[in-house]
Please model this.
Amino acid sequence: MGEEIGAGEDLRMAAAINEIEGYLLWEAEQRRARGRAEEFCARLPWLTDSQRADVVRHYCREQHEQSRSYLERVAVRSAALRTEYEDAYRALRRRLVAALLGAGALGTLALTVLSLSGSAPGVP
Model:
């Protein structure tokens, strides 16, 4: 029972770490988008401060939508790949178990035949 509690805590800890990592990656992406927007605006010296702020805001919003869309596509593909790999793993495991059972049956049959042929009367 203690192992189950430890496993549950490990899963919660891993989920918390994943959430923190996701948050940090998302914040970094937002900072990069803001930096790119500000670099773009720096090449447009005729913009007023309010125009510059509007361009940065619009650019960041657009980048946010693109990043979210990309991450959603990655998540869907990741789930599909996970299902594919789990199916392939189950098929390989079934084949391995079948091969081991077959090899065990052949080995048992061979031992049985050898033991019967060695104990048959009249065989030198």
